[in-house]
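Exercise 3.2. Students should predict the tertiary structure of the chain below and write it as structure tokens, then compare their answer with the key that follows.

Predict this chain's 3D structure.
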Amino acid sequence: MKRQLILEDGTIFLGEAFGSDKENYGEVVFNTGMTGYQEILSDPSYCGQIVTLTYPLIGNYGINRDDFETITPFINGFVVKEYCDYPSNWRSEYSIDEYFKIKNIPGIAGIDTRKLTRIIRMHGTLKGAICSGDASVEDVINKLKETDLPTNQVEVVSTKTAYPSPGRGHRVVLVDYGMKHGILRELNKRNCDIVVVPHTVTAEEVLQLKPDGIMLSNGPGDPKQVPQAIEMINGILGKVPLFGICLGHQLFALANGADTEKMKFGHRGSNHPVKELSTGKVDITSQNHGYTVREDSISNTELEITHIALNDGSVEGLKHKHVPAFTVQYHPEASPGPEDSNGLFDQFLNMIELNKKEGVL
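Answer key:
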């Protein structure tokens, strides 16, 4: 069955349908990872987006029960050059087509994903629609122009109630702005006693849980659309050691008086080099974000830049000059991606132990 991908600028791609027959709209982005499509499609940070994979063959090792980053995927569509209908892997339980039919997610294959990627790189992210092959192009484009992108993605993906993931180690309150399960797995591996809380949690509610440390998770969308999180961070800063990832990094920056802005096409992939300024060490990192902290907004704050992206010089890490708190823009849990920066979780726990021992706070 034929299917169209129509962009708001009038570009039309005609391809082959797979997955659900649902017509869906969203911001069209691209990811450059060669593997890890299951983790990508289940990453809550893609909420409401149509994800293009630049690697040409997707689905060859199927879908399994273990590699999800959330139980329910929140993407609005998948765009690939070629999908594999007969995966070969001992863990595979579904083909990507079968899984998308179950989860009601539309996909389109057989299009020139290189051309699509170059359009996004040239013009920036665009709104797009995955629709049937006989849909009226004019009607779809008019609808795209009239439709505003959602601003409540964090509300959609965050847990509604707090829940524990018990351990015998340090008590970590993990604020869920669209948390990937990889973050939870890394803390569980270190035997942390974790309490996952919703994005609406207040500073008072966090402190009532008597945490040894606070972790701010990744998540989708514009950090300025989550003002209650900025207020909460201001209420706990300097009282408990803090570690933030991705959206958590951006919210931490905003809470400290820095500014953020939307990127032209974002960083989405598993091979982004990041330099640690204090040591000169370069890590290859996994990234997924469309907003960034403005470097020129840091100078009048109590923050210090710790990491930069080597590809474009953007801010990739921050720390507070006076209290135990640091954040990174990339994903040290690396799901998918290299594990170069996995030690940041140990750095966080070491910070907690030092704070307990010396009573810094």
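Discussion points: Residues 164 and 171 are 10 Å apart (CA to CA). The domain at 2-150 is CATH 3.50.30.20 (Glucose Oxidase; domain 1).
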